Known about the structure:
Cupredoxin; signal; five-stranded mixed beta sheet; Extracellular serine-rich protein; Ser-rich/MCO-related
Amino acid sequence: MFLLSSVLSLALAGLAVAQNQTVNVNVGGVASRGENIFMFSPNTITAQVGDVVRFNFSGSPGNHSITQSTFQNPCQPMPGGFDSGWVFIPENGLPPDSDPIWNLTITNTSAPIWFFCKQLVPMPHCTTGMVGAINAPTSGDNTFQNYVSNANKDSSPGQGIGALVGNGASASAVPGPIDTSLGANYAGSPAPTPVSASGSGGASPTTTGSGSNAASQLRMDAILYLGAIAAVGLFA
């Protein structure tokens, strides 16, 4: 009987693991192909507890983040929300199979998960529509369409730094691999420091580095990013 129970338990555990899915989301488009560089594709997905949302930083040029927000304030980092940190991708992209990846595991599906890109250069990405949702309602007031509408009207996007563990989802590491030879992998501030999950999965924002270093890094990356965009004719 004990052996049978053990076998059944292992089988059920294996079934649960097998049912977990990985959902791929591309961060930014490729300008040289005429794609919108300020987008998540897809921008709305459905996921279950244990599923992994795999964010691929494949857009070029790009300098983006995946930052948790709320429906009411779509372009403001959510207190205790997750944040990938900014990842810079040069104009010509990266070698094959080397795009930075950020895996976000769903830990709670009782409420929708809203996220946006907090970059402000060359204009706020959030207000141009670079927002996304996990398990957004399809009817009522809090639909994804209304979330986008709220983002378009946001007059003061924020850039606070979050942590790896947020409300309803968490990550165990910052995006990677990162090519340090680029010299500008994160704009503005360092990536968030890993933290342990506790309680419902929320976490207080984690900040590292000094304000002067953050401002210097932001100016440097802004120059690189604007130059890359201008080079592909997006300002023409």
